[in-house]
Amino acid sequence: MSAIAQEFEASQLRRLSERGGAPVAGGFSAVLQRARSMQVSPGQMAAALSRLRICPTMTAHPTETKRVTVLEIHRRIYRRLTELLTRTWAPQEEASYRDALLAEVELLWLTGELRLAKPTVQQEIDWGIHFFHEVLFDALPTLVDGLGYALEHQYGLEPPEHFLQFSSWIGGDRDGNPFVTAEVTRYALQRYREAALSKARASLLALIPSLSVAMSVAEPSTRFMAALEDALDHCGSARAAIEQRNPGEPFRQFAAALLLRLEATLSGDPGVVPFGRSEEFRLAVMALRHGLSECGAAAVSRRRVLPLERRARIFGFHTVSLDIRQNATVVNRSLAEILRLLDPADCPMPGTLGWSARLARALKEDPPDFASLQTSEETRDLITLFEVLIDARRRDPAAIGAFVLSMTTSAEDILAVHVLARWATGPFHGGQKALSVVPLFETIADLRAAPGIMTAVLGNRAVRRMIHEAGDSQEVMLGYSDSNKDGGFLASNWELFKAQMALRKVGARHRIDVSFFHGRGGSVSRGGAPTGRAIGAQPPGTVNGRLRVTEQGEIVSARFANRGTALAHLEHLVASVLLHTLEPPGAQRPDEAGEFFEALEALSGLSHTKYLDLIRTPGFISYFDQASPISELGLLKMGSRPARRFGGATRDISDLRAIPWVFAWSQNRHMLTGWYGIGTALSNLARVRGDSGMALLRRMFEGSRLFRLVIDEAEKLLLQSDLGIASLYADLVTDKQSAAAVFGAISAEHDLTREMILRITGEGNLCQRFPEFHARVHEMRPQMEGLHRLQVDTLRKVRASGGPEAATQDDISTLMMTIHVISGALGWTG
Ligand code: PGA
Q1: Is 485 a catalytic residue?
Q2: Which of 161, 485, 754, 819 is deepest in the core (most CB within 10 A)?
Q3: Is there a contact between 784 and 821 (Cβ–Cβ < 8 Å)?
Q4: Digit-coded pLDDT (tens) for 356-398
């Protein structure tokens, strides 16, 4: 409830600030003002705008504990608040709105908060589409307006029409999720298509009554009349009915004809010619807009028709571009199986030199006859998936995004996907363009190896040709959470930074535009730093107008459940990318040069070593298992996918996904995923370099955006960690001696990190710089302590009874509720 009130208040404050003439920090007006102060000319601005391609990518990562029913009540509460507080009502009206609000709060209070069953992928697809219907279909055209308004005032320029579009992984992310089959992907594509078409249909239906311009009053242009003739021609026998229903009202007739054609596109009415591609529909809507303007109805065309045209451009007939994700292990396994079936004597093992040569040959070969191969179910499903992709791309090329290859560790991993993609969707299929293959680098070692891997891939002629066909651009995805799990917070941030700089150089050497897809979760440990600052801290020249970023799980509802919040977030995202792009390319920031670089390199190495020492401490895995509710997480039934990629043993953290890792350390309030290792790194650097070391750290705090971001976020997480509460969880560990050793190491590093951060910032207490945040954490402390005590007691009972299966329903409900409420209070689940 308080989060909803805060969202509402923030949105009101933004309005007030704009009305008072002060642009909202980080918004369009503020960034354009800044651009003017940086002497960015209109020509430079136009060039930057033309490059803008920003793509939030929605995922159903299992971090959302709230049921859809509860999310819907939240949204209604927000709406009721807006109705009640943003207009002036007569007393009786006000009482009625208050009552409506009370009814929603009552319902929320009495509604079961948690899911009773694990969601299916189909439900996750519907959950994602819900945000488009409720908010995004209408919000995105408004966002273009917002940019247009600011641009007109500051630069006299028009907004670009196509700078933001959504992608999705929901229904396409099969990495470690056996429920995402080819058939499920086919279903997802169908649902996304229906969503876009039915929104376009509803918009046209709403538009038709207002198009009452009469021919007798305003004569349409001959161009429009020709377009009308063409539209009616496509309606077959329904033409006469349209003309009779709206005699003398050509615009109504035109819109009615478009409506019929859209309906035929949706349901396949044989008498009417459906639209082929969404572009055909968009051009027709544009003809309507121009026709109205030419008749003197400029405001009508702008207010009523332009949003529809913009929607058609942004969402087409596909709503989102659906990405496919699979991991390299599965892809290699399937390709090796296919090659073995084709010729058992010519199939070296993946990972060998022979494998690499075999892939190079396969890239030049014609596709095999897949139907004749007796493959395993896994491989058959991958082949069917490619068939689904060919079909979808034939109907609408924008419906499919990229093939994201997780766990990419070598050039051969990437070549293997290219082989499959070329066989399945390449030149043999009616000239379809090569499918974009996006490697995902997600461990520290893989981030370090990424530039070498990409150099090898781009050195392959066949692949280079495919990339050329795709416009000489290559996207690379960066995994924030797994690199964090692998190397700790500081090392992950630094390696991500360096990898981007190096990959950008590799791209320049091969004359390829390398852009980045940031796989960031909501919590800070999974890359969820504040949007504007996170983008601002990217290395210079690495954004250049292009940014893809994941919007995962609980973040989707936090950002897109209400129009005001969604618009504010998206504006901030676009404005930050624009600002980063406008920064002069030659202006090196100190992060990447000279002493700051060396210091960050040293700090990263030191913190990484310290972090690895902890993970390798004897008894650490048992500590992790027992001193947190990790084994009980499954009770929450959060997402369709399992907690482990390959279903490995519970005592192995290597294939444990990053979300449960962060979840466990958050619930038990150690929060070490956001700070562990930093204290040792800072203090060693200061010790070795003496006074000059401390002075350097302070200069970096002032001058390096990346270092500042790391320190700020680590400091916030240190404040949110609570070793008093953490010790209650440590007490759950049965081997007291190793528990004491692990907890001792964690508390010592906690104290050291706190001390070093305070020495650098010069503050007396943590987070004095963030007073609101500080106050919030302190206000919640007493209630949080009660909740944690209850959770620890319940964990003890549930485990003593033999685990969740044997525990009482009461205890299970209590446990689930404590997990849910603690994550609600922290603001993230994992
Ligand atoms: P993944 O995502 O486990 O789906 O790779 C990691 C994360 O976002 O935490």
Answers
A1: yes
A2: 485
A3: no
A4: 999 999 999 999 999 899 999 999 999 999 999 999 999 999 9
